[in-house]
Amino acid sequence: MDAPPDLQANRGSRREKAGGEVPPGSSSLVTSAASGTTRGGAPRGTAFLAHYARQFGTLAGLVGLSVVLWILTPHFLTVSNLLNVAQQTSINAVIAVGLTFVIISGGIDLSVGSLVAFAGVVLATLLQRGVPVPIALLAGLLTGFGCGVVNGLLITMGRLPPFIATLGMMSVARGGALLFTDGRPVSGFGPGFRWLATGEVLFVPVPILVMVAVYAMAHFVLRRTRFGRYVFAIGGNPEAALLSGVPVRFHQTMVYGLSGFLSAMAAMLLTARLNSAQPIAGINYELDAIAATVIGGTSLMGGQGSVMGTLIGALIMGVLRNGLNLLNVSSFIQQLVIGAVIIVAVLIDMALKQRRR
Amino acid sequence: MTPTAAKPVLSLRGIRKVFPGVVALDGVDLDLHAGEVHVLLGENGAGKSTLMKVISGAITLDAGEIRIDGQPVRIASPRHAQSLGIGIIYQELNLVPHLTAGENIFLGREPGLGAGVIDQRALVRAAQQQLDDLGVAIDARTTVERLSVAQQQMVEVAKALSLEARVLIMDEPTSALTQQEIAELFATIGRLKARGVAVVYISHRMEELFAVGDRVTVLRDGRHVGTRMIRETTMDELVRLMVGRALSEKFPKQRVPAGAEVLRVERLERHGLLHDISFSLRRSEVVGLAGLMGSGRTELARALFGADRIDGGRIFVHGRERRIDSPRSAIDLGLGFLTEDRKSQGLVLVQSVQENLTLPSVGRFSRLGFMRRRDEAQAAAKRIAELRIKTPGPHQRVMHLSGGNQQKVVLGKWLTTEAEIFIFDEPTRGIDVGAKVEIYQLMNQLVARGAAVLMISSELPEILGMSDRILVMRAGRIAGEFNAADATPEKILAAALGRN
Fold it and tell me: What does the domain layout of chain A look like in residue ranges?
């Protein structure tokens, strides 16, 4: 039970970091043609620190939490346990990337958990019928993407509020998964597919590699591509974005498509790990993913956020669950602690933003 | 009855209100008598709304005195104003649509049976009484959303009267009413007068003032410029009072000979908003677009920019007919739109100066979807230097910039797209005088470089000071066109008010 106060203390230290950016005099950390020409402009060094101050705070929270758990139970800081945490986190983390895009764009996606189930059973059924693994995987991913695009179209063309559209999809996809499988799990796959859960590359389990690759790409897309720039602009002010010539509807639709796609990718990892696809898989996954996203500092108001923050948020949730398990804390209390952590994290974040203004 | 003989219900002396960079009210005096309809007149921005907000407690005054029945009061909040007997009916009605008329009248003051249970019968009875006293045929049990705008207005009036309002402010009450409804409204106002209520009536429609008013007070630039008995004044005198100022030297207009036609609009239509609009715009020309609020100026700008659908008409850019069906296509044709409301439409406040400067031209700073960050940073740095945008750096969020600097960022967006046809909608609204002159100078530079500017403004001096040609809109149509040399405030206002 010590975890939340400590987390709080560590997250509090973010303020010093944010406030104590590089002093103006020492600003020429990076000299490039671009920043050199800007009169009094913040060079990349300062901007980098200012930009990532929020994530450093969340990271400090994660490190602090880990230290506490290490003190309380030596078993926490073993390679096998840490790999275990990372592997367990990977599924939530991959879903949360999609949700981070959606939330930055100013929306919400409640259907991700059901899409995990739906894409999972589609994938599993194809595998069971002997469809080659790559084709089955592709079909699963396209299923997720397609359902996401439907969400997006309902929101952009049908003008439904994202909450309603994805709430509907949440139920439709769940029903679809149950109908498709007659409510029974689908299992019995070849070892090739199982490699996704059990395989290792250079001693690192495949799910962790998938997670890392997804995050690296998502970070790049969000920060370095036109798509990412538009997602931020749409979330920050859709009207201004539209009047600046941003194809708002297209990008909004694609963001939900991406979210569905990543849910399907999580379904792939989950199905491989359990060696079966359950039509009732993924229940409440949307809540875990939203939690990881907001703990990671993405604003539910849209326009602000980062996938790296989300990764740390997902790891905080994973570490917390793992630690509480190691400490034999009952699952009832676990629920309570995780809820409290979410609330406290966002409260602190809001208080800090208020003061920075 | 001569209202002036009686003691005023409400009297204002030396009211002053300063907003950052603007003196909104500067020593305004006003007396309101029981049973009179006092019309408040002035151009957009003359201070009418601010004055009414002061009286109704929405904002506090910086200096001056308010007396009610001769007693000095400090009106602290709208609720306080209510308790002092001051009611206000805004253009945007403040009713809860799903509740009944009666429930709205007694919202927050429901007659109770104890334990929080509402006495429905008492509520309906009392509400019906109020409505009947007003002489309006509305059932207190009807949900408000099923009432017409005029009826909803009456519900607001009944609500104010149930709060024992002795001063009732009506802000543009006829703007959404039909002729028939206006007649009924005036009949109701007559009954209010008979009950001894002092009515403050704000409207742009001159003919109404003569139909309903007893006295009229004219405001200009936040100052009181005159109070007249309606039956002793004329429209011409009132117009003169409204605009009668010497145009100051605030406008550093440089005249450049206009070049070839860059934009021509023929018979543009948008159902219910724009009718038969034709005009053209030439290189190195500033065309001012004047008109009252709601005359369709912003609607025209949005339609031209592809933000709203067009129902008819043709648009030629550089002599070729073009379809503009989205802001993207407008931008690609070289149009730039500086919106009226910077914060809600012009800028992404949570994003940086750089990101805002490059937003409409992100395509030019990316290759195969990947941002070319060095090019982008260079372009942003160039704009910041060129426009002298005061910011700690390109990565500062625009929400932290001053109004003038924010406006420069919006302008910078369109310089980055290399726009040649600029639509400025209220370019200097809410920015201080120094920054205004800077914006005018930038406009001069654009024009000198060959840009064409369509400038919407509610400030007549700005229109007269900066335009080469002036279009006046009224009720969705072009109601007049003047060369800068022949234009006078009187002519423009006459066209805008529809009395040619």
Answer: 74-326
Contact between B40 and B48 under an 8 Å Cβ cutoff? The reply is yes
Q: Which residues of B touch A225 (CB under 8 A)?
A: 366, 369-371
Task: Determine the Cα–Cα distance for residues A139 and A173; give it in Å rounded to an integer.
Answer: 16
Say which residue the tokens 């491989």 belong to: A272
B303-339 per-position pLDDT tens digit: 999 999 899 999 999 999 999 999 999 999 999 999 9
Chain B nearest C-alpha distance from A135 (Å): 27
Residues B217 and B296 in one domain: no
Residue A210 — φ and ψ, nearest 5°?
A: -60, -45
The C-alpha of B474 sits at a distance from chain A's nearest C-alpha, in angstroms, of 25
**Which residue among B347, B362, B385 sits closest to A237, beta carbon to beta carbon?**
B347
**Mutation test of the interface with chain A: which of B338, B340, B351, B425, choosing the one with the most A Cβ atoms within 10 A?**
B351
Closest CB from A42, A43, A236 relative to B348: A236
User: How far is it, in rounded angstroms, from Cα A57 to Cα A356?
Assistant: 14
**Contact at CB, A40 and B339, closer than 8 angstroms:** no
Among candidate residues B243, B275, B298, the one where a domain is terminated: B243
Residues B334 and B430 in one domain: yes
Q: Is the pLDDT of residue B81 over 70?
A: yes
Contact list in A for residue B363 (CB cut-off 8 A) is 226
Least CB-CB distance to B381: which of A34, A230, A241?
A34
Chain A interface residues (partner B, CB cutoff 8 A): 32-35, 37-43, 46-47, 50-51, 224-227, 229-230, 232-233, 236-237, 239-247, 303-304
With respect to residue B145, please indicate whether it lies within any of the assigned structural domains: yes
CB pair distance less than 8 Å for A233 and B359: yes
Check A41 against B384: CB less than 8 A apart. Answer: yes
Q: What angle do CA B318, B314, B269 make, to 5 degrees?
A: 140
* pLDDT tens track for B337-374: 999 888 888 999 989 999 999 999 998 898 888 988 89
Tell me, yes or no, whether B260 lies in a domain. no
Domain boundary among B243, B277, B294: B243
C-beta atoms of A225 and B370 within 8 A: yes
Which DSSP symbol is given to B276?
E
Q: ipTM, 2 decimals?
A: 0.75
For residues B23 and B169, membership in a common domain is answered with: yes
Residues 6+ apart with CB under 8 A from B20: B432
B158 and B70 share one domain: yes
Pair (B233, B273) in one structural domain: no
* A38 to B377: CB separation less than 8 angstroms, yes or no: yes
Containing structural domain, residue B204: 3-243
Tell whether B431 is covered by a domain: yes
Check pLDDT > 90 for residue A105.
yes
Instruction: Say whether both B120 and B26 belong to one domain.
Output: yes
Greater model confidence, A223 or B114:
A223
pLDDT single digits (tens) A229-275: 999 999 999 999 999 999 999 999 999 999 999 999 999 999 999 99
Inter-chain residue contact A42 with B385, CB threshold 8 Å: no
B466, B455 contact by CB (below 8 A): yes
Beta strands across the sheet bearing B71-73: B22-32, B10-19, B63-68, B71-73
Q: What backbone phi and psi angles, to 5 degrees, belong to A329?
A: -80, 135
State the fold for domain A74-326. Answer: ABC transporter involved in vitamin B12 uptake, BtuC (1.10.3470)
Highest mean pLDDT, choosing among A51-55, A239-243, B130-134, B492-496 = A239-243
User: What are the distances in angstroms from CA A54 to CA A43, A48, A61, A228, A303?
Assistant: 19, 11, 11, 19, 15
**Contacting residues of B for A35, CB less than 8 Å apart:** 377, 381
The reply to whether B386 and B239 lie within a common domain is no
Kindly tell me if the per-residue pLDDT of A22 is higher than 50: no
Identify which of B330, B380, B393 has the shortest CB distance to residue A40.
B393
Shared domain for B234 and B272, answered yes or no, is no
Nearest CA in chain A to B413: A244
Residue B500 has pLDDT above 60, yes or no: no
CATH number at residue B221: 3.40.50.300
Looking at the domain assignment, is residue B248 inside a domain?
no
A42 with B393: Cβ contact below 8 A: yes
Q: What does the pLDDT average to over A146-157?
A: 96
Count of domains forming chain B: 2
User: 């007919």: which residue's tokens?
Assistant: B321
